Amino acid sequence: MPILVKDFTWTQSPTNLQIKIPSKSMNKNNIDVFTTDSYIKIHFNPFLFEIFLLHDVDNERSKCIVQEESIVLELIKKKENDWECLEKCLTKEEKKELRQKILEKCQDEAKEKTEQKSLKKSEMDRFTVQKAMEIDSQQHALMDSRRDAERNKAMNELQQWNDSLKPLNPNINASKHINSNWSYNIKKNENSVKIVELPSSDDEKNENKTKKQTTQKKPAVNKTLASNISKPVRSEYVEKMKKETANRVLPKLRETGEVVITHTPRTFPTPSRESAAQEEEAWLKNITQARRAIGFVSEDLRPEEHDPQWCKEKGDEFFRNGNFLGAISAYSHGITLSNKLPTLYSNRAAAHFALGNFNKCVNDTSTALDLLNPPCEGNRKSRAKCIARRAAALVRLGYLNKAIGEMKAAAKLMPEDENIKKDIYNMEKAWEQNPDSD
């Protein structure tokens, strides 16, 4: 439960406001500061400073300075005037309502800033992409212009070289006579020469006749091949393999079975090693002796001791003698024997509470209340004790609001108990001093 800081000092000027909060035993890394224009909250465990300012200040321009033995708040006033006092005079309900409004407003502002930041980031990304596309298009245009210039330069050089190869006087007269079988007539014009081919000789005619005869004979060959292909071809090897596969006898399938494997029981989860055998045996021996020192070992119990009621009585004896670990061990063994006895859980919760195991105390009391159903007059006091013990554990865990509700429920079951009424009064008083507690 945090302690409210009241011994702070403050000074002011027409424009500034300074608040000095003492903090002698403080870790600078564990300070939580929450400030707005009209509300300031500083938490440094176990102290809490909270104030609702009389007028608004400029939160953006204000400063928080953490010194060795104090925390200094330098606030800038929005209006230049002298304040009559530092904080508003509000009731508990008004403070709660105003605190909730300020928190919701800060959440909305943070959400709006996040949205604006994401929108600005998307706009910057879009602008970056557009600029990259423009630079890319400029680079492509530059590359195209350089390529066109190089191509035009190469074409001009090629044209110049081609023009330099043309003859100055292209007047050529040529006439040749080749054998009686071949002859060409060359007709020359002013700019070009035409070559006319004469009819073929007798040898070429004979060759063409033989080609025609071969082409006429080919279809007959193709017909004979087609007739041979249409007939099925039998293979002795294929027929033999078919007979062998038909007469083959396949072996029977393997029968299913189960293989039972038994392992040596082992306390440790790691594999056993010869080098660590002596160390493990010594550890088990020490653990057994320690368990016997705080209570008993289940292997050492006599037959008449395997009774949950006996375990309860044994645990009660340990609890009265102050041996809370032994009591927990006895109750736990009784629960393993029978998990339907609510007294084992409620008594073990008391032992956990005595040792400071408040979470386990809450769990055991909840289980005991579940087992005490249906509620009746016979278990009224037991239910009231369980609820009160759970409320006490919740107070130790810091859940003061829930503990008050639990204690009031116990008071309804036992209205004559003065201790419960006194506890409720003390819890409500603590709640008024620290309304921020859960």
UniProtKB/TrEMBL annotation:
InterPro entries: CS_dom (IPR007052), Dynein_assembly_factor_4 (IPR052004), HSP20-like_chaperone (IPR008978), TPR-like_helical_dom_sf (IPR011990), TPR_rpt (IPR019734). Gene3D superfamilies: 2.60.40.790, Tetratricopeptide repeat domain. Pfam families: CS. Residues 3-87 form the CS domain. GO terms for biological process: cilium movement; inner dynein arm assembly; outer dynein arm assembly. This is Dyslexia susceptibility 1 candidate gene 1 protein-like. Residues 197-221 are annotated as: Disordered.
